[in-house]
Amino acid sequence: METSATRIGRRTALALGGAALAAPAALAQGKFPDRPIRLIVPWPPGGSADAQLRSLAEIAGRKLGQNIVVENRPGASGTMGALHLATQARPDGYAISQMHLGIIRRPYIVRTPPWDAVADFSHIIGLTGWLFGVCVKADGPIKTWADYLAYARANPGRLTYTTSGIATTNHITMEELAAREKIELVHVPYRASNEAAVAVASGEVMSVADSSAWAPLVDGGQLRPLCVWTAERSPRFPAVPTLKELGYEMVVNSPYGLSGPKGMDPGLVKVLHDACKEALFDPANAAVRANFDMPLEYYNTEDYRAFVARRAEYERAMAQRLNLRID
């Protein structure tokens, strides 16, 4: 016959057993990370995002007590990291990647969506954006944005421009500008923004429309900037007009952040967020951003999830309006 003492004893044993089962999970979570973390950068080395994320990884790794190893996976317009997260990576916190607008946009411009940018990732933190602009060869005949448009009108289909990939934010912005001006431009995509800038400096392509990997070539006298896409003029290039000053109500800075695979434990997300936030605001990372004129676009985890959701709706509507398709 079961007595009160027996029932109490069983309850106690069950409670102790539950605590014993919970303890390893708590300890395991407490030890995170206990090995290096992979940060996939979906561009070749040398560009602005690569530099900023490498700096962030180094600083955050010191704070976590484990290395964050940068792994470059270029190709597919900067979406190889997202593809890995969505199809192969485990949600254990040891694989994260850059989340940029091209990844959010991609489901709406391909026949078979590879992921749902809102539901298929664990969004961690918003970090920064890019200074975009259009540059030409410094010793060429085009000196201003008005010259650029005039050349395009006089030479339909002959003015070439390069970007870091098809269906990137900068590519779509150029297509929208061309549509507004009723000019025909020829897109010549490269794998990365630094490669695109060098192609213009060497005379392979007539202009580059990309992030500020072109800035050192401007400083070196090889390229000439015609416009920047920020809300205000860049302090580094104060003589260069914005798109708004040129008559377009457009500000393009393409904020990006970090995400992991779907289903990450909130505790792991918090550990990564907190370390990356400290690294983002560290003077060393701020110096890298300043070197590339990258605006701070910090979002905490909740706000970054909300940003991705809002942006997904915007990208869906824009893809429909512009009839964007890449396959």
Automatic annotation (TrEMBL):
One Pfam family this sequence matches: TctC
Keywords attached to this Swiss-Prot or TrEMBL record, sorted alphabetically, are: Signal
Give the matching InterPro entries.
BUG, Bug_dom1
Q: Which Gene3D superfamilies match?
A: Bordetella uptake gene, domain 1, Periplasmic binding protein-like II
Family per UniProt? Belongs to the UPF0065 (bug) family.
The answer to keyword Nucleotidyltransferase applying to this record is no
Which N-terminal stretch is annotated as signal sequence?
Answer: 1-28
Name of the protein described by the UniProt record: Tripartite tricarboxylate transporter substrate binding protein
